Automatic annotation (TrEMBL):
The keyword Transmembrane applies. Keywords: Membrane, Transmembrane, Transmembrane helix. Coiled coil: none annotated. Residues 19-353 form the Acyltransferase domain. Pfam families: Acyl_transf_3. This is Membrane protein. It comes from the Bacteria. One of its GO terms (molecular function) is acyltransferase activity, transferring groups other than amino-acyl groups. It comes from Streptomyces resistomycificus. The chain crosses the membrane at residues 24-43, 64-83, 108-129, 136-156, 176-198, 261-281, 302-323, 335-357, 378-398, 410-428.
Length: 446
C-alpha cells in the first residue's frame, strides 16, 4: 500500500525507483487476481445453496492455464530486489537488523491485520446467527486462499540481514546453494523447508539482479530461461510432477505444497525471462503516462492481494443467491463466454472496494508512522516473539481458512492479534517528528 519511495530517518539521500521492478510487482498482482477470478466458478445447488466446483480438478486441461498465472516468483524476485536496497540503506545509516525487520514486517502485517479483523468479525457474527457451517467454511477458505504467501515472505524478510550478508560474500552461489538444498530436502521428504528454500532462490536472485550480477548478460538470462524451462518440461513430462503450478485437490505430488523441483525450475525460467525482457520493457516504461498507471497498481498491490476474493462473495450474494446470474453448464462454451462479464463485474467491485478502503489505509499509515526504524531498548524479544506468533497464525489460516468446520478459529485469531501488537510495540515511539507524515512513513522501507 502506498508508493515505496523509501528513505531512512537518519538519511535524506533520495532513492531512485526501479520502474521495471515496480512493473513486475504490478504485473504479478494483476495475474494473481485475474487467475483466481478466472478459475472460480459458482453453481447454485437444487436447494439454492452456492457451490464452487474446483475447475482445475473438474477439467484437468485447465491446469495448463496455471503456466500463465503462476507468477509468485516475480513477487519474491521483486521483493528481494527492493529489500536488498532498503536493508543496505538502513545498515549504512547505522541501523540494526531488529528495527529494519520490524518496519518491513509491518508493511505486510498492518494491512493484513485489518483484513483479518474484518473477516473474523464477519465470521463470528455469521456463526452466531446460524449460517450453515459448510457455507461458512467454504467462504472462510476462499478468503484465506492467498495467505500462504504471507508467512513465507515474513520469514524471508526476517532472514534478510543474514541472506544479504551471504550474498555480499558469495553472490550468485547463494541461490545456487539454496536450490541444491531444496532438491535434497525434497528428495529426503523434508519438503516443508522448501517453502523458504525455493522461494528464497527467487528472493536471493533479486539481490543479485540489484547488484548487477545478473544484468547485462543476455546469454546468461537466456540460459536461465531455457535451462529452467527444459528442466520443468522434463519434470512434468516424463518426470513425476503434474503440470499444474497451483494446488489441485487430491493431486500427489504437488508443485506448490511444498514447492517442488518443478517449481524451482519454473522460478529459474521465469526470472530468466524477466531478465531478457527488461531492456525493451524499460524503454516502454520510460513513457510517463504508462508509468503513472503502473505506479497506481503497484501502490495498491497489497490491498489488491488481500481483498480480491471479496468481490466474488459480493457477486455471489447479489446475483447468484437470488438466481439473477446466468447459469450455463459448468465448463461449457457458454460458461467460458460468461467469464468475460464475470471478470468485468468483479473488476468494478474491486475498484470500488479499493476506493472505500482508503480511510482504513490512512489509519494503517498513521500507526506505521509511530513505529521507528530502531527497536526500542529491551524490546527486541517482542519483535521476534510477535513474528513467530504471526507466522504460525497466518500459516494456520492459509491451511484451514478463517472458519474451519464453520467455526471461529480462536487460537490463530489470538495469535495474529497478539503477534501484530508485539511487533508494533517493539518499535513504538512517542516522539514522532511532525514532518514524518503517514504517507512518508509508508514509503520509508521500500
Amino acid at each position: 500500500m502506498g508508493q515505496h519511495r523509501g528513505h531512512e530517518r537518519t538519511s535524506v539521500r533520495p532513492v531512485n525507483r526501479d520502474r521495471y521492478v515496480d512493473f513486475l510487482r504490478a504485473w504479478a498482482i494483476g495475474a494473481v487476481v485475474f487467475g483466481h477470478w478466472l478459475i472460480t466458478g459458482l453453481v447454485r445447488g437444487d436447494g439454492g445453496e452456492i457451490r464452487a466446483p474446483e475447475l482445475l480438478a473438474e477439467m484437468p486441461w485447465t491446469q495448463w492455464l496455471t503456466l500463465l498465472f503462476q507468477v509468485m516468483p516475480l513477487f519474491f524476485f521483486a521483493g528481494g530486489h527492493a529489500a536488498g536496497g532498503s536493508w543496505e540503506r538502513h545498515r549504512d545509516a547505522g541501523g540494526r537488523a531488529a528495527g529494519w525487520v520490524g518496519l518491513r514486517a509491518l508493511r505486510l502485517l498492518l494491512p493484513t491485520g485489518v483484513y483479518c479483523g474484518v473477516v473474523l468479525v464477519a465470521v463470528g457474527v455469521s456463526a452466531a446467527v446460524g449460517v450453515d457451517p459448510y457455507t461458512l467454511a467454504l467462504v472462510g477458505w476462499a478468503l484465506a486462499m492467498q495467505f500462504w504467501f504471507l508467512p513465507v515472505y515474513l520469514v524471508l524478510s526476517a532472514l534478510t540481514p543474514v541472506l544479504h550478508a551471504a550474498h555480499r560474500r558469495w553472490g550468485v552461489f547463494v541461490p545456487v546453494a539454496l536450490g541444491a538444498a531444496a532438491l535434497v530436502t525434497g528428495a529426503l521428504g523434508v519438503g516443508l523447508l522448501n517453502h523458504v528454500l525455493v522461494w528464497g532462490v527467487a528472493y536471493q536472485l533479486g539481490f543479485c539482479r540489484r547488484d548487477g550480477l545478473l544484468g547485462g548478460r543476455p546469454l546468461g538470462a537466456a540460459a536461465m530461461a531455457a535451462g529452467g524451462g527444459l528442466a520443468f518440461a522434463l519434470l512434468v513430462g516424463p518426470g513425476p510432477y503434474p503440470v499444474s503450478l497451483i494446488l489441485v485437490t487430491g493431486q500427489d505430488p504437488s508443485n506448490t505444497n511444498p514447492p517442488s523441483a518443478a517449481m524451482l525450475a519454473w522460478v529459474v525460467a521465469q526470472v530468466g525471462v524477466c531478465l531478457l525482457l527488461a531492456p525493451p520493457l524499460r524503454r516502454v516504461l520510460a513513457r510517463e503516462r504508462l508509468w503513472r498507471r503502473v505506479r497506481v497498481v503497484s501502490g495498491v498491490s497489497m490491498t489488491l492481494y488481500l481483498w480480491h476474493m471479496v468481490p466474488v462473495l459480493v457477486v455471489a450474494a447479489v446475483l447468484y443467491l437470488p438466481g439473477l446470474a446466468p447459469e450455463p453448464g459448468f465448463g461449457s462454451p457458454a460458461w467460458w463466454a460468461w467469464r468475460v462479464p464475470w471478470l468485468l463485474v468483479l473488476g468494478g467491485v474491486l475498484a470500488g472496494l479499493v476506493v472505500g478502503l482508503r480511510p482504513l489505509e490512512r489509519g494503517v499509515g498513521a500507526v506505521y508512522a509511530r513505529v521507528g526504524p530502531r527497536a526500542r531498548p529491551g524490546w527486541s524479544w517482542a519483535l521476534w516473539l510477535g513474528l513467530v506468533a504471526c507466522v504460525a497464525a497466518l500459516s494456520r489460516f492459509a491451511v484451514r481458512g478463517f472458519a474451519p468446520d464453520g467455526r471461529l478459529p480462536v487460537a490463530p485469531t489470538v495469535g495474529v492479534g497478539l503477534g501484530i501488537a508485539l511487533v508494533v510495540l517493539s518499535g513504538w515511539r512517542t516522539d514522532v517528528r511532525r514532518e514524518r507524515s503517514a504517507k512518508s512513513a509508508l514509503d520509508e522501507v521500500a
